[in-house]
Amino acid sequence: MAVTLGILALLEAKPGQGDALGDFLRSGREVAAREEGTVTWYALKLGDTTYGIFDTFEGEGGRQAHLNGEIPQALGQVGPELLASDPDIRQVEILAVK
Asked: CA 15, CA 48: separation in Å to the nearest integer?
C-alpha cells in the first residue's frame, strides 16, 4: 500500500456549536468506512471551536471520490447551521508514513 495523497479540512464551529460539530464528525466514521478508496479517515478536535478531518488515499481516484462523496455533501447541508466560515480544505501530498 502506497499512501501518497491526503485531504486536510479545517472547520471552525459557530459559538455554541462545537459539540454538535463533533457529533457530526463522529457520525462520518461509518460513511468513510464504506469508501473503498479512503485508506484512513480521522476526525480531530483542535480546540473549543476548531475541528478537522484528515484522510489518506493511495491514488487521485480515491481522493476525488471522497471529495464528491457523502461526507462533503452532508457537511454542505449542516454547514450553515454549525460552521462559522467555509471549511478550509487542502489537498496534500504525503511525504512519509510510518
From this structure: 9
How far apart are alpha carbons 68 and 88 in whole angstroms?
A: 16
Q: Decide: helix, strand or coil at residue 91.
A: strand
Residue 77 sits in a domain whose CATH number is: 3.30.70.100
> How many helices (H) and strands (E) in the chain?
3, 4
Range of the domain at 17: 5-93
pLDDT digits (tens, 9 = 90+) for 12-71: 999 999 999 999 999 999 999 999 999 999 999 999 999 999 999 999 999 999 999 999
Q: Indicate yes or no: pTM above 0.85.
A: yes
